[in-house]
Amino acid sequence: MSDAYTGGAHSAAPPPPSEAEQRAANNSVGELLSDVTRNLSTLMRQEVALAKAELTESGKNAGKGAGMYAGAAVGGHFVLLFLSLALMWGLDVLMPIGWAAVIVAVIWGIIAAILAAKGKKEMKQIRGLPTTAETIKEIPPTLKPGEQTP
């Protein structure tokens, strides 16, 4: 028993160096900066690809909403057309044909209201670029791994 008694405690070996620590010890500053530049370039390309995908999805929803609004505009046009004809015929001759035109105009008004409501619903589903915005927020803390984020 030549070793001194340590009271049952074992001395722990230091943890092995991480891959990043090994590269920092073995690579030059130029190589490390080259790696950082390459990684940042890859990250930016991925963010642009994500933004394109999100814009495509938002564009599709915007197109649907715009189509519904266009349908509502056509319906609204027919409302004005038939209401105008109904008023004209109703005042001119006060005959049942005017009331028939009013009924057709009311039907077009209902169709226009339904299309407008559907168009509004489609437009509310446009979310912009939520995933891109979220991942871009993560970039600065990634560049400063030693700092604590609130």
Report on the structure:
This protein is mainly α and 150 residues long. Helices cover 77% and strands 0% of the residues. The protein is built from 5 helices and no strands. It has helices at residues 19-26, 29-93, 96-124, 130-137, 139-143. α2 (29-93) packs antiparallel against α3 (96-124) and α2 packs antiparallel against α4. It is rod-shaped and about 105 Å long.
Notable features of this structure?
150 residues, mainly alpha
Averaged pLDDT: 77
Distance between the termini: 52 Å
Strand residues, percent: under 5%
Helix content: over 70%
Main beta-sheet annotation:
none
By DSSP, the count of extended strands is 0
Backbone CA Rg? 35 Å
Unreliable parts: none
Structural class: mainly alpha
What is the element string, with H for helices and E for strands?
HHHHH
- Given the C-alpha coordinates, what overall shape results? rod-shaped
Helical segment tally?
A: 5
Give a brief outline of the structure.
The protein is mostly helical and 150 residues long. Helices cover 77% and strands 0% of the residues.
What order do the helices and strands come in, and which of them pair?
Blueprint: H1 19-26, H2 29-93, H3 96-124, H4 130-137, H5 139-143
Helix pairs in contact: 2-3, 2-4
